[in-house]
Amino acid sequence: MKSLLFPLLLLLSLSLTAQSEWTIVLSTKIPDARMGAWTRGDYTILVNLDSISTHFRRCQQSITRSLEYYKDQDSNLANYFRATQNRYGRAATQLEQAANGFDLKTLVIYEGVENANRNLEDCRILESYLKNLVEQGKALVYFKGERIYTLCCTSELINQGRLETVQDILNHGYEIRTFYEDPDNSLFIDYSIMGW
User: Fold this and answer.
1) Is the pLDDT confidence value at 9 over 60?
2) How many helices (H) and strands (E) does the chain have?
3) Strand order in the sheet with 35-40
4) What local confidence, expressed as pLDDT, does residue 162 receive?
5) What's the CA gap between 104 and 48, in Å, rounded?
6) How do residues 133-154 score in pLDDT, each as one tens digit?
7) Contact 36, 52 (CB under 8 A)
């Protein structure tokens, strides 16, 4: 009985004290000579262009290894990796040649074969990498033109109703917002769906 009661009490106490709001401490560094800019609404993120270029070259090398492995086994996977490898290489070259203030949204980074619709504005991979840099304190963040040094994050349970159907279970999860003053004016909005 005790062995069953203890885990239940522990689970209950952890769920009651789960953190639903926290603060991210941002970089206090002086801007580098070559920074790239990524803007969303009132926010602008500045990141060292060389660090992004190095990251994309590493990704390109990893994709090249996958291409070498699959090129004689599966032509569909080879085409997938070849197109992805080329995009990462082009993006890294663009960054290596870019001047200060380069607009990072002009980069075309996605995984898969060529797709004209995704070439227009698919910045999910870049946005995810920039979010990691912001959270690690390796990016400068400006809000309405003023540099800021902290961001707030909130985590809110979505689909809180009863979990009666499969759809209810699959769409149950959290919405995580990263913002400065107002959650409705967020820099990042992520969804963590438990069922997927």
Assistant:
1) no
2) 6, 9
3) 102-103, 35-40, 43-48, 140-143, 146-148
4) 66
5) 11
6) 999 999 999 999 999 999 999 9
7) yes
Residue 7 lies in a domain: no
Does 9 fall in a domain?
A: no
Instruction: Please say whether the beta carbons of 37 and 101 come within 8 A.
Output: yes
Residue 114: half-sphere exposure toward Cβ, Cα within 13 Å? 4
Strands 173-179 and 186-193: antiparallel
Strands (DSSP E) contained in 43-181 are 43-48, 102-103, 140-143, 146-148, 150-158, 173-179
Number of domains making up the chain: 1
Please check whether residue 67 is in contact with residue 82, taking contact to mean a CB–CB distance below 8 angstroms. Answer: yes
Domain assignment present for residue 87? The answer is yes
- C-alpha span between 104 and 127 (Å, rounded): 10
pLDDT over 80 at 68, yes or no: yes
Domain carrying residue 85: 19-26+34-193
pLDDT digits (tens, 9 = 90+) for 85-143: 999 999 999 999 999 999 999 998 999 898 887 777 778 899 999 999 999 999 999 99
